[in-house]
Amino acid sequence: MASGTADMQISTTNTANNSNIFFPNYLNSLFQTPHRLRKRMLATWTPDQELNQVRQRSGADMKRKLKWYDLMALGIGGMLGVGVFVTTGEVIKEHSGPAVFISYIVAGIAALLSSLCYTEFSVQIPVAGGAFSYLRLTFGEYMGYFAGANILMEYVLSNAAVARTFTEYLSSAFGESPDAWRIGVGLMKGYNKLDFPAVALILLLTLCLCHSTKESSMLNLVMTVFHVVFFGFIIIAGFYNGSVDNLVTPNGLAPHGIRPIIDGAAIVYFGYIGYDSASTMAEEIQNPSKSLPIGIVGSVVITSVLYCLMSLSLCLMIPYHKIELKASFSKAFQSIGWKWAGNVVGAGASLGIVASLLVAMLGQARYLCVIGRARLVPSWLAKVHPSTGTPLNATLFLGLCTASIALFTDLSIVLEMISIGTLVVYYLVANALIYRRYVIIGNSPPSQILLFLFLLSLSAIGFSLSWKYKHHWWGLSLFGGSTLIIIALFQYMKVPCLAQAAHSPAAWSVPYMPWPPALSIFLNVFLMTTLKKLSFQRFGIWTVLITLFYMLYGVHQTYQAEETEMISVDHDRDQVDANSSVQQTKLDNIQVMSVISQV
Q: What mean pLDDT, rounded, does the chain reach?
């Protein structure tokens, strides 16, 4: 009975605290913002707290029904169809030319290094929060929130872009122009073509994801197998009908030089968005310590190989300057006289885009669910439906947001904004892995590790800016050499310390530390600097907006929640003390009565 009363009191306190944000006490909360920021921005959680205490805020648990092949299919399905069908035409025509496959190789290496970092975190902290949870446990609440907000922005924008591409390929499958199924309206350019098929697709997938994760995964598995076979058809047909002469006609393999090939790598990196959504399924995987490494790393490797072969087959079929920006593969087959194949490619690409959209929408809801558990957004977004085991509210909310953007916004507006958000988050995760391995696990002084990360980032920025602004070769040699020396010296000095903090033999970890995450940091910085100035301006505006939201809402919610939990702990402790006192009094009375009876 006492426990029930305590629960009612805690529930009442929670309700009161939640309402305080929006009513007269909110003004008082704003005056306390500096104090609360100091207390909460760097507040971290332990893995045990994240796995148990925080996860319980969702009510029901997510159901562990997925196996390693489900995870690999989710990773492949999430990536395939996005990069090749959305960005390849633009990168070939305006950046890399026939050497686009080299752009995919560079982006694939960066994605592989980042995926290793994600894999270690997901194995050791198997929760649905992905980068949000990893950074919150390592660098504190604000950094986790910053990463989570950027991941959500990346998901919503990329899903909207992919849904609009679905309309282009579907119309091509019926032999019509890419914009044939869109409705023109009198709005500014880039927002003036309403795409209702894209909206319908997003809403349909949202309802599917609300129903069950396992059924959605089986649907994705079937579509992914079909999609890989379909990719094989495009690769074989492209190589069969292609000519090596098209790779060097009219201006050679790299018509614009080496620099645009690397610039193109930052754009095609958009195609690797998806493997991180596999890490968000950690709460629903059976045997995560074995399934997660196979699923995440395996999906990145397979996708990289297919991307390179697909882009190469496209450039073999027709000269790069004749490739269309929209529905590139369909138009390429039609241009060589295979109109039927162009229609088949349009239909198959549409199906592949549905699979990648399904996986991305699966991942975005789990990110928002875990951010809701942390109370950085309204807690109703964290609720898991008890019968379906899915984050129902988060799925519905993000589905509506994605549909709204897909209705208006043109693909070109969001592509580079997506890339910079993705690269920033992957950069932070690589930093977090090094800090966790050497400081939290290895007990090294934090100042030494932070100095190493600072010098590494500084040398990566120096090399990247020397490349971007075409400085002399000595700048590239100086900063490139210093990067390698910094990593090598750090490894030499810190390996003995790391060895003292051995992991559990059953836990998977990144090999050859610190090289993979350090090179991931370098490549992510390098790819970021190749993006246009407008991308950084938009990213800066987004950063200001999410920081304001954190200062006006998130920090107050988490601060008050912490106070509530402290009151709850104190109350429970008082109850235990009171019960112990009562029991002791009863025992004393029994002893007294026993003495009296003996007398």
A: 78
Q: The whole model's pTM is what?
A: 0.80
Are 169 and 88 contacting, i.e. CB atoms less than 8 angstroms apart?
A: no
Per-residue pLDDT tens for 376-388? 888 888 888 777 7
The span from the CA of 128 to the CA of 131, in Å, is: 9
Is 336 exposed, middle or buried (CB count within 10 Å of its CB: 0-12, 13-18, 19+)? middle
Q: How many angstroms separate the CA atoms of 116 and 247, rounded?
A: 33
Distance CA 284, CA 369 (A): 14
Q: Sketch the domain layout of the chain as residue ranges.
A: 66-174+199-434
3-class DSSP assignment, residue 59: strand
Express as a percent the part of the chain with pLDDT over 90.
Answer: 12
CB 130 within 8 A of CB 118: yes
Q: Within 92-195, where are the H helices?
A: 100-124, 131-139, 141-173
Contact 558, 376 (CB under 8 A): yes
Please tell me which residue, 135 or 28, carries the higher pLDDT value: 135
Contact 227, 59 (CB under 8 A): no
By the 10 Å C-beta count (0-12 exposed, 13-18 middle, 19+ buried), 37 is classed as middle
pLDDT tens digits for range 525-570 = 998 888 778 888 888 898 999 999 999 888 888 888 777 665 554 4
State the amino acid at position 14 in one-letter form.
N
Helix spans in 250-391 (H): 258-268, 275-279, 288-317, 328-335, 339-373
The closest alpha carbon to 75, from 301, 250, 226, belongs to 301
How many Å apart are CA 27 and CA 468, to the nearest integer? 47
Q: CATH assignment of 66-174+199-434?
A: 1.20.1740.10
Type of residue found at 353: I
Task: Give every CB contact of residue 429 below 8 A, 6+ residues apart in sequence.
Answer: 114, 117, 118, 121, 131, 134, 135, 147
By the 8 A CB rule, do 66 and 217 touch? yes
DSSP 501-565: SPPPTTS---SSTTHHHHHHHHHHHHHHHTS-HHHHHHHHHHHHHHHHHIIIIIHHHHHHHHHHH
Q: Which helix (H) or strand (E) holds 193?
A: strand 193-194
